[in-house]
Amino acid sequence: MTGDAASVGGAIAAALERAEKLRGLSDRPARVRIMTIFGDDRSGLTINARIAARTPAEHRAQEGLGTRCIPWDELDARAGEIVGLVDEVVGEVTLAVRNAPPVPRPSRSEDDLELAAFDGLIDELGQAITQLALSVLETHPAKHVSRELGSEAAMLAALKFAALAAYTGHVGLNAAQDELRMAMGEVMSNMRASPELARRQSLNS
Fold this sequence. Notes:
The chain is mainly alpha-helical and 205 residues long. Helices cover 62% and strands 10% of the residues.
């Protein structure tokens, strides 16, 4: 029994070492987790790999992939497979991400009639979100927080909303980050040009 436990422990240690080596070989490294699961149809030792998705398509491409389980009653006999399973799950999600189809942003592919209303829709949604944020800040039990703290709370809520909107709108992480940089640059430029505008636009002054 002691020898079996050492064999399993050594195999897990070797598997973790292999996972770290694979991370160093890729520009899109997979996160490998080796977990013990009890009480369901995956009860046993589970090896899971996942690559941080940059687009919704990459996220969907990995669904249902990158997981292997060795049941408890087979673990001693199959300990020698654990390192190979790490290679298997990492290879599976790496291939899935590599083959994920590029999905163009809707604003790059819709017809001219829809695009004509796009800028107006952005402005209207921006005004609605700002008014809602102001309403919450004025009526929430914590409305007496500082202006800076209220603005930070609004920012974090807006980013979570933006992440959901980006996912459903097929906007990848890199494109979303670019949009945030441009929006920040526009705001900073406006504030420099008009300090009075900065005071008027404070969310909870």
